[in-house]
Amino acid sequence: MDIEILQDVIKKARFLGAEAVDLMLVEKKGVSVSTRLTKLENLTQSEIINVDMRVFIGKKSANVVTNNIKELHGDAFVEKAVAVAKNSPEEVVESRADASKLCKNFKEMDIFDSTEVSWENLLEGAVKCESIALQVNGITNSGGAHVENVLTKTVLLKSEGFVGEYDKSVSGIVIETLGEKDGELQRDYSYSYAVYYADMKTPEQVALEAADMTVRKLGARKVKSCKVPVLFHKRVGRSLLKSMMDALNGSLVAKGTSFLKDKLSQKVFGDCLNVSDRYDTARGLRSCPFDADGLECVNTNVISSGVLNSFLLNTKYANKLGMTSTANSSGWDSISPHNICIENGDKSFDDLVKSIKSGLFVVDVLGKGLNVITGNYSQGAAGFWIENGEISYPVHEITIAGNFIDMFSNCLIGSDLEMSSGFGSPSILLDEMVVGGI
User: Fold this and answer.
1) Secondary structure of the chain: what % helix, strand, coil (to 5)?
2) Domain at 3-215, CATH from 3.40.50.880, 3.90.110.10, 3.40.50.150, 3.30.2290.10
3) What is the pLDDT of residues 43-93, one digit of tens each?
4) How far is Cα 427 from Cα 414, in angstroms, rounded to an integer?
5) 175 in helix, strand or coil?
6) Which helix (H) or strand (E) holds 9?
7) Whole-number mean pLDDT of the chain?
8) Extents of the domains making up the chain
């Protein structure tokens, strides 16, 4: 879309009484293909444009959204925004970034793949993925495969004269496989997302990962309740990291509803834990040069050797807490990490397994898990039992529970970090958790 059209919208809002205006346009063009048992089930080609405008009058503000571009050429869209702002309550804290702090140097980022990917290419990948998985002994069915390619343009304008834009691409492949043995059904999945289509795992890799884990789960047993070491698969480690990020979200901290709200600059976790947020990761799925407030993004060492260094903040909640924004605004009132990960430790996966005399290896979890107010954690789980340093047999219908601070106070971190969808984790071995079984 022509930038001048968006600038004209801002001028209209200023003419009608808005003292400041932010305008964000997100345009997505995507192609996706879904198959079931190697047959085409769904083909979708989409083009979506979303425009979100925020206007300020004194300490009052309002935002309006449209996906109808024709509305930008008329007056009703702008008039509505200004009218709503005039009738809104005053804000307690300033939610706009200071003009002097807006991004001025737009870093070149390798986050767009210009390679044209046709729906035929996607279909070929989905069919191949399912075909390979279904040939694995023990796999009896497929939940389907899905392959997609999405191109996104983000444009942010501010009435101070700020204009920033960037293009991003994401390609992904997902499969779910099902297996059966003696009347017992098990399922698993695998997926891969990347900025560049060629960087995705191959259909063969994704298919065999899902199929192998599904077959390994067959013959699962129940276990007695106990307290044992728990080793988390790196994909479950990413789930733990996402829960931790909920507790570090500045909006919850400012509202006093995070168990970490009073822990800043304190040693909260064990020496093993290091968490970093990187906005400029090459080909990173969540890399971007500026945030939704218009601030230049920064890299943040969130946790260093167990010490909580920073919350994730946008301008609004940073001002409310008397802190500095970490440039993690992902919308007018939302906060998200960039490319965030639990950094690699020095133990291989095999070394972690060998260190366990008797314990649990978790590959799946069910349910929300973390209570961000108390820090208590509990989830349904499935995986494998470890005996004398070896993975012995699959287990299911269990729960795992603990407190996040206690859980990460004594842990070992693997060296097999894998990033996926902007979150990354190696394998994680926690010294002890409560395992609920029979």
Assistant:
1) 25, 40, 35
2) 3.30.2290.10
3) 999 999 999 999 999 999 999 999 999 999 999 999 999 999 999 999 878
4) 5
5) strand
6) helix 3-15
7) 96
8) 3-215, 220-438
